[in-house]
Amino acid sequence: MSPPVLFFVLGALAAAARSDLAVPETVAKGLSLYLMAAIGLKGGVEVSRAGIDGQLGLALLAGVVLSFSIPFLVAPVLRRFGRLDRVNAGAVAAHYGSVSVVTFVTANQIYAGSGFLAAGFMVAVLAAMETPAILSGLIIARREGGGRLFEPRLLHEVAFNGSVVLLLGSFAIGMLLGEDGYQPILPLFTTGFTGVLCLFLLDMGLIAMRRLMQTRALTVRLAMLGVVFPLVNGTLGVVAGVLVGLDAPSVAVLGVLAASASYIAVPAAMRLSLPQADAGLYLAMSLGVTFPFNIVLGIPLFRGLAEALTPLMGAA
Amino acid sequence: MSPPVLFFVLGALAAAARSDLAVPETVAKGLSLYLMAAIGLKGGVEVSRAGIDGQLGLALLAGVVLSFSIPFLVAPVLRRFGRLDRVNAGAVAAHYGSVSVVTFVTANQIYAGSGFLAAGFMVAVLAAMETPAILSGLIIARREGGGRLFEPRLLHEVAFNGSVVLLLGSFAIGMLLGEDGYQPILPLFTTGFTGVLCLFLLDMGLIAMRRLMQTRALTVRLAMLGVVFPLVNGTLGVVAGVLVGLDAPSVAVLGVLAASASYIAVPAAMRLSLPQADAGLYLAMSLGVTFPFNIVLGIPLFRGLAEALTPLMGAA
Amino acid sequence: MSPPVLFFVLGALAAAARSDLAVPETVAKGLSLYLMAAIGLKGGVEVSRAGIDGQLGLALLAGVVLSFSIPFLVAPVLRRFGRLDRVNAGAVAAHYGSVSVVTFVTANQIYAGSGFLAAGFMVAVLAAMETPAILSGLIIARREGGGRLFEPRLLHEVAFNGSVVLLLGSFAIGMLLGEDGYQPILPLFTTGFTGVLCLFLLDMGLIAMRRLMQTRALTVRLAMLGVVFPLVNGTLGVVAGVLVGLDAPSVAVLGVLAASASYIAVPAAMRLSLPQADAGLYLAMSLGVTFPFNIVLGIPLFRGLAEALTPLMGAA
Amino acid sequence: MTEMTRRERIEVLVDAPLVRKLAELAQEAGITGHTLWRVTGGSGTGGVWSEDLLSGATAKCLFLVIANAERADAFMAALEPLLDSHQLIVMRSAVDVVRAARF
Amino acid sequence: MTEMTRRERIEVLVDAPLVRKLAELAQEAGITGHTLWRVTGGSGTGGVWSEDLLSGATAKCLFLVIANAERADAFMAALEPLLDSHQLIVMRSAVDVVRAARF
Amino acid sequence: MTEMTRRERIEVLVDAPLVRKLAELAQEAGITGHTLWRVTGGSGTGGVWSEDLLSGATAKCLFLVIANAERADAFMAALEPLLDSHQLIVMRSAVDVVRAARF
Ligand SMILES: Nc1ncnc2c1ncn2[C@@H]1O[C@H](COP(=O)(O)O)[C@@H](O)[C@H]1O
Ligand SMILES: Nc1ncnc2c1ncn2[C@@H]1O[C@H](COP(=O)(O)O)[C@@H](O)[C@H]1O
Ligand SMILES: Nc1ncnc2c1ncn2[C@@H]1O[C@H](COP(=O)(O)O)[C@@H](O)[C@H]1O
Ligand code: NA
Ligand code: NA
Ligand code: NA
C-alpha cells in the first residue's frame, strides 16, 4: 500500500481504538486548501504543456452527465431497498452524483506513482462534477412539493463554492504559468505533495471511522448501498470514459470520480436546502462507508477496469 | 505576473464573486509567522556574508525619518481633501507612515526572481519603520487634547510587537548561523518560500477585497488618497534611498516600504489608543486599497523609478 | 548553538520581554503532529534497514523500568525537600517518570547533525516510557486512599493516547515502507524537519517562559528540584543504557528520555485523575524549568556522559 | 448609576449553514444586529458530536440577539416554522442593557 | 404567540479534561444533552491564563445544560462534591425555551 | 439542596485589543476574575463582520464577570465613559452561583 493509504488506515485504526488522536479542524482545512491549489496547478501546468484538444470537451460532458444523472439512478434504490423517504433519498442521492476531491487527489497520486498518468484537464472535470448532482437531488426531494425548487442564493453558493473556485483558479494559474513559471513554487506544491496527503488522509481516517462509530442512522441496508453505489457508479464512469475515447488513466480517474461521493460541498448545500434531511445519515454513508471503500479498494479496481476496457474501444 | 501576484488576484476575484473560499485565520497566522521568520533569517544570513557597513546606519535613519514624518505629510490632506476629523486623520496617517510586512516580502521575492537583490539589512529597516509612525499618529490625533500622549503600556507593546520581535530575532539568528549554519533549515525557509507566499497572498486577496466590499466608511475621496499616498510616499522613499546612497534594489525596496501601509500592528495599536477612530475606515484604506495597489502596480513601479534615479546619484 | 535551540531562546526572550508574539494553538498542534509522524517514520525506516535485534527488547525494558520507578524516587524528595502533600507529590512525580517528545526530537536532531546517530527503535522506547509513570504517580497519590486506584477509562486513554498512537503508528508505517517506499514522502518528512522544529521550539520557548512568569505555585525549592531531577534521572538513564549494552548515541538518548518530563500526556491524565492537584505547579516545573534545562544544557550533557561511560562497558 | 433598560435576550443553537437564514429573519423582525460564536461539541438525541468535521455542514453556532419585547416576539414567531425542520434550540431570557436605544 | 416554557439553564466553567465527567453526571441526572464551547482566557485567584497551552490540560470550557427544575437540582447535587476539587464555577438562571418537552 | 446565592452576571461584547482595559477596570472594581471567549461573527450598524481578519484589531470577544451587586455597580460605572468611544455592548442579568464567597 502507498504511504497515504497507510496513514488513512492508521487514522481509522486509531479512531476504532477510541484514541484521542485528532488533527485540529483549521489545520485540516489548511491542508485541504493546499491540496486543492496543488492539484489545480499541476493540472494547469500539464495542460499548458500538452495543449487542449477535443478530449476536454468530451470529458467535461461525460462528467456533467454522470453527475446529473447518477442521483436519479440511486434515488429509487435508496427509497425501495434503503427505505428512505423522498427527502432523505434526494439528499443522499445528491452526494453520490457529486464527487470527493480527496478521493480524486489520492487516485491521481497513486496512479502517478506507477507512471499511470491521467490528463491534466481531469481537474476541470472534477470541478464540473461537483454541482449538477445538487440540482438533481433537489429535484428528487421536491418533485411534488409546491414551493420553488431552490433558492436563488443556493445556485450562487454552489457555483462559487470555495473548492470549485480554488481548483479552477489554480488550474488557470497553472496554465498561465506554464512549466517555467511554475518552477519557483514547484518545491512546495509538487515535492511536498505526497507527504501532506499522508497527514490529510490520517485525519480523514480518523473522521471517517468516528463518523461510522457515532452514527445512529445507518442501517445495514444503507451501509450495503454505500459499497454497491461506488461499484456501479464507478463502472458507469469507466464505461463513459471509454466511450468518449479518453486514455486509460483518465478513464480510471473518471471512474473514481463517478464512484466517489461528496462530503464537503454537498452536505453544506443539503443542510441549507433540505434541513429536514438527516445529516448524520448522508455523512455516515459518504464519509464513513463510500470514502474508505474507494481509497482502499475502488482506486485500484477502477484502474484495472480501465486498463481492461480501454483497449476494446481503441480497437473498435 | 509572478505566481504570488496571480494567487492574490485569484483571491480578490473569488471574494468579488462572493465565493465562500476562506483560509482559516489561525492558518493564515501560521503562514505569516513562517514568512517573517524566513525573511528575517534570509536577511541575517545575507548580512553575515556581505558584512555590515555604514549603509545600514544610513538606511535605518532614512527609514525612521520616513516613518515618523510621512504621517505629518498625509494628515493635512486627510483632513482637508479627505474630510476626516483630527482623530481619524491621525489614525489613518499612522498606517501610512508604518509599513506592510507582506508587501515587503512580496517585493523582495519578485525582485529576487529576476536577480534584482536588495541588501539583507533591509529587514532591519522594515522592523525599524513599523513603530515611529504610531507616535506621529497619536501626536496628530491628540495635539490639543489635555490628556497624556500615550499610555506607557502602548510604548512597550509597540516596541515588543510580535512581528518586530520575530523579524529582528530571526535576523539575529541568521547572522549567528551564517551560510553554513543555515543549511539544515534552508529547505523549509528558502525552498518552500514562494509557494507559501502564494497561499498567503491568496488569503490577502480574499481579505482585501472583502474589506473593500463590506466597508461603509470609504468615500471616493478617501479611496483616491489610498492610491495617491503610496505613489507620493513611495517616490519619497526612493528619493531618500538614492540620497543616502543605497544600491538600486535596496532603493526600490525602501520605496515600497514607504509606499506600503500597515494593516496589522498599527490597527491594533490604534484600536487601543484611539478607540473612537473608525477601524472600518483605516482598514479599508490600507488593506482594501493601498495594499492591492502596491502588490500589483507599486512593486514594479518603484523598481523602475529606482533604476532610473540611482545612476544619477552614482554619477554625482 | 543549533537553529532549533536558537529559536527556543528567541521565544523565551520574547516572552520575557512580554512581547505579544504567539503561535496559534492549532498551528502548534499541527506542527507537533508533523514532528511525531516524522520521527516515527524515520525510526521505522531506520529499523527496516538495520533490522531488529535483542537490543530493542533490552532498551524497552530499561525504558519501562525507568518510567515506572523514577516517580517513586522523586516523590519522597518532593514531599520532604519540596514540601508538597501526597497528592501533589504523586502528580509531579508522574511527570518526571514520563517523557517529553519534543526533548527527544530535539536531542535526536542535534545529535544527528554531528553524525551521532541513535538507533531507530528508540522511538518505540519513547512511546513505551510515556505511560508507566502515570500508574506510579497514582499509586503514590492514593496509596492510603480507600477508593480504586484509577478509573478503567484512564488506562484506556493513556494506552491509546494520541501521541503514542501516532508515534507507534508512523513507526510501523516506516517499517512497512522501508527506504524505497519512504522516498515519495521523504521531502516533507525529512528535508523540512529541522525547519519545522525551529518554529515549534520558538513556540515552546514562548510557552515555557510564560508558564514560568505566570506561575504562583513555584517555590525556590521546587525550581531547584526542576534542575536536580533531570540531572539525576538523566544519569540513571545513561547508566541503564550502558548496562543493557546500547551504543553511545542510544545511551545518550535514553538519558535524555529519563531526564525529560512530560507536559502533554501526563498533565491531561492528572487533571482527570487527580483534579485536586495543582496544574499550575506541575506545568511550571516540567514545562517552565526542566524542559528549558534539557534543551539547552541536558542534551549536550548526556551526550558527554554517554560518550564517557559507554566505552567502559564495551571494555568489560 | 448607569441607566439600564430591560431587553430580551434570545439565543439560538443552530447549524452553521443555517445562520444566514436566521440573520435574515432577525433583520426582517427589525432587530439591528446579532452576534455569533462557534460551539465545539455537545450531545443530544442525535448522539455526541464534536467539531472535528471537514464539511462544516453539522458545525453548530450560538446565535445571540438582543431586542425589545416586540421585535423579540416577531423574531420568535418567524422562527416557529423552522423549529423542527432545522432542529433549533431556542432560549429566551431578560437582560438589562445600556445604550438601549439601539436595540 | 410562540409557546414558551420555563426551564433552568446551568452553565459550568470547567477544565477540558473534566468535561466528559460532567457529561456523565448530567446524563445520570436525566438531562438529555449538553452544549460546549471553548473559552479562550480569563483571570481568577489562580492568576491570568490564556489558551496558548500545548497540553490542553488547563484549557477551559463552558458547559451548558438546559433542564427542568427537578433534573437541574439533581445535576447540581451531583456536582456538589466536585465543586472544590475540580474548581468549578457554576451559574444557574431561568430561561424560556420552545419545544420544552425535550428538556 | 446545594446552596446558591444571587449574583450579577455582566457580559460585555468588546474588541479584542480593549480586553485588557476591561480586565483592569473589573479588577479596580474589586471583581476577582473574568472569563473570555472569541465570538466569530455578527452584524450591527457597522455592517456584517466575520473573523477572517489578519490584524485582530477588530476581532471581538465576550467578556464575562460574575460579581455581587455592589461590585457590579462599580464596574458598570467604570464602563460608562467607554461605552460610546469603545462601542461596547453590555448585558446584565442575575444568576445563582455556588461557592459565592469568591465573587
Ligand atoms: N438539554 C440540553 N442542554 C443543552 N444543550 C442541548 C440539550 N439538548 C440538546 N442540546 C444541544 O443541541 C444539539 C442537538 O440536540 P439533538 O437535536 O437532541 O441531537 C446537541 O448536540 C446539543 O449541543
Ligand atoms: N468573578 C469571575 N467572573 C467570571 N469568571 C471568573 C470569575 N472568577 C474566576 N473566573 C474564571 O474562573 C477561572 C478559575 O478561577 P480561579 O479558580 O479563581 O483561578 C478563571 O480563570 C476565570 O476564567
Ligand atoms: N441587537 C444585537 N444583538 C446582538 N448583538 C448585536 C446587536 N447589535 C449589535 N450587536 C453586536 O455588536 C457588534 C457591533 O455593533 P454595531 O456597533 O451596531 O456595529 C455587532 O457586530 C454585533 O456583533
Ligand atoms: Na460521484
Ligand atoms: Na509606509
Ligand atoms: Na523522564
UniProtKB/TrEMBL annotation, chains A, B, C:
Keyword RNA-binding: no
Domain of life: Bacteria
Keyword Membrane: yes
InterPro entries found in the cross-reference section: Sbt_1
Membrane-crossing residue ranges in chain numbering: 56-78, 90-111, 117-138, 158-178, 184-202, 222-244, 250-269, 281-302
Alphabetic keyword roster: Membrane, Transmembrane, Transmembrane helix
The protein, known as: Sodium-dependent bicarbonate transport family permease
Organism: Alteraurantiacibacter lauratis
Lineage summary: Bacteria, Pseudomonadati, Pseudomonadota, Alphaproteobacteria, Sphingomonadales
Automatic annotation (TrEMBL), chains D, E, F:
Signal sequence extent: none
InterPro entries: N-reg_PII, N-reg_PII-like_a/b, N-reg_PII/ATP_PRibTrfase_C
Pfam families, per the entry: P-II (PF00543)
Protein name: Nitrogen regulatory protein P-II
Biological source species: Alteraurantiacibacter lauratis
Lineage, highest ranks first: Bacteria, Pseudomonadati, Pseudomonadota, Alphaproteobacteria, Sphingomonadales
